[in-house]
Amino acid sequence: MKGLITTVLALGTALAFPAPRGTSSLSSLALQKVLSDASPILGAYAKSSLSTASWMHHYPDSTKLVHMNLPGVHDAQTWNYSQATQDALKHVTDLDGNTVYPPEIYRCQEKSIIDMLNAGIRVFDVRYAYDPTNSTLVFWHSEALMSETATVEDVLFGFYRWLDEQPSETLMLSFQYEGGTTINAKNDAATQMELFRTLTTPAAKKYFLQTKDQFGTLGEARGKITLLKRFDLDQLPASYGDALPGIHFSPALWTDDGVDIALTYNSAKNLTAYIEDYYQPNSPIGMGAAYNIELKLNATTQHLVKASGMYPDSLFWSFASSNYDVDSPPETPRIMALGNGTQLTPKGGVNQQLVPFLKGMKGKRVGIVMFDFFDTPGDLVQALLDL
Ligand SMILES: *[C@@H]1O[C@H](CO)[C@@H](O)[C@H](O)[C@H]1NC(C)=O
Ligand SMILES: *[C@@H]1O[C@H](CO)[C@@H](O)[C@H](O)[C@H]1NC(C)=O
Ligand SMILES: *[C@@H]1O[C@H](CO)[C@@H](O)[C@H](O)[C@H]1NC(C)=O
Ligand SMILES: *[C@@H]1O[C@H](CO)[C@@H](O)[C@H](O)[C@H]1NC(C)=O
Ligand SMILES: *[C@@H]1O[C@H](CO)[C@@H](O)[C@H](O)[C@H]1NC(C)=O
User: Phosphatidylinositol-specific phospholipase C X domain: which residues (predicted)?
Assistant: First the structure.
C-alpha cells in the first residue's frame, strides 16, 4: 500500500509539472543561458564526435595519471584576445587605468576552449582576478582583461557540461593569480574568499575530485577535474586551505622562469612534481627570434627527456610556451611558438620543432606538455597522443 501511495504521489508530481511539449525544461534553458554567458571565454558550446574528444577511453582505469602524456594549453583564456576584443573592452579596462599593450603580447591561443577540449587538450592553465569593479572573478592575462561578462563560475559550467558528455575523459585545471594583473585588484582576502566560494559550490563539489595533494588513477578521475592550485589562500584562516581539494603548487615554491623546478606538493608523502616553466629565455636582448626559440626548445626537450627517464611515479609538467617581449621587435608568444613566418626563423617555432622530437619519443612518458597555439602545426597534439 505504501508503495502504491508513493507511486501515485510520484505520478502526481510528474503530472503536476509536465515539461511543455516542444519546449525545453527550465534547467536546460538555464544551462543554455550560463553557457551563452560563458562563451566569450569558453567559445560556442558544441558536442563533438571527433576521436580526440574521447581519446582517454582507450586507457584502462588503472592507469596512473602521472604516467600519462597529457596535452595542455597555456593561457587558454586568451584565445579570442584580438584588437577588436581589446577595443571592445577599453571602457572597462579604463576604469582602473591600466596600461595595456598590443593584443599579440597577451594572446597565446586562437581556438576556443571547447575546440581545445574536443581536440584532446586535457590540462588548462587559466589566470583569474576580480573584474575592475571588484564584483566577480573573471579572466585576465596580466593587465589584459579577457571578458567583463564571462565569469570564472560560468566558464566552469562549460567544463562540467563537456565532462557530462565525455564521461571517459578527465581534466586538470590550473588556476593562477598573476602578479601584474589589474592595478586595483589584489590577491587579498576578498579575492581569495570568492575563489574559494567558486571552487566549493555544489556543482564544483560534484565535478572537482575531492582528493588532496595526490594524483590517483584515470578510473577515479574520469568525468572529473583535478584542481591544480597555483595560488595560496594565505589571507584566509588555514581552515580554508585545508578544506579546498586539489594539488597545491604554491607560488612561493614555483621558481619564476625555472628550467627545472622540483616542487614538493606533499611533504608528508614526499611527493614532488618536476616542472619546466622557462617562459622567458634569459638571453641578452637582440639575439633574435631563432636564437630564443632554440634556447626555449632546448629547455623543453631536456625536460621531456628527463621525464622519460627519471622518477616514473612523479608528475612531470613542461611548458612549451614562452615569449621574449623585451626584444625589439618583441618575440610574442605566437612568434616563439610558430616562428615569424620569414627566413628569420627558417625552422619555424618551438611547436614545429617539437613534432619530430615527440615522434622520436615513442613509448616514453613525457607527462603534461603545455602549448601555446596548440593547433599549429596540425599534428602536434596527435604526436603527443600517439606516444
Ligand atoms: C571574439 O571576439 C570578437 C571581437 O571582439 C567578438 O565579436 C566575438 O563575439 C568573440 N567571440 C566569442 C565567441 O565571444
Ligand atoms: C577593488 O579592491 C581593491 C583592493 O582592495 C581596491 O584597491 C580598489 O579600489 C577596489 N576597486 C573598486 C572599484 O572598488
Ligand atoms: C623523496 O623523493 C625523492 C625522489 O623524488 C628522493 O630522492 C628522496 O630521497 C626522498 N626523500 C625522502 C625523505 O624519502
Ligand atoms: C641547444 O642545444 C644544442 C644541442 O645540445 C646546442 O648545440 C645549442 O647550442 C643549444 N642552443 C642554445 C641557443 O643554447
Ligand atoms: C619577422 O622578423 C623580421 C626581423 O625582425 C621583421 O622585419 C618582420 O617584420 C617579422 N615578420 C613577422 C611576420 O613578424
Answer: 107-229
Spatial neighbors of 15 by CB under 8 A, at least 6 apart, are none
Least confident of 72-76, 84-88, 187-191: 187-191
Strands 137-141 and 144-145, sheet pairing? antiparallel
Class of domain 67-251: alpha beta
The mean of the pLDDT values for the chain is: 93
Domain-wise residue ranges, the chain: 1-37, 67-251, 253-387
What is the atom index within ligand 2 of the atom nearest the CA of 134? 1
* Least confident piece of the model among 88-102, 105-119, 120-134, 341-355: 88-102
| 350 vs 322: CA distance, rounded Å | 9
Select from 292, 293, 295, 298 the residue to mutate for testing ligand 4; criterion: most ligand atoms less than 8 Å from CB.
298
User: Which residues have CB under 8 Å from 150's CB, separation 6+?
Assistant: 37, 38, 39, 40, 41, 42, 138, 139
Report the percent of the chain where pLDDT is more than 70. 93
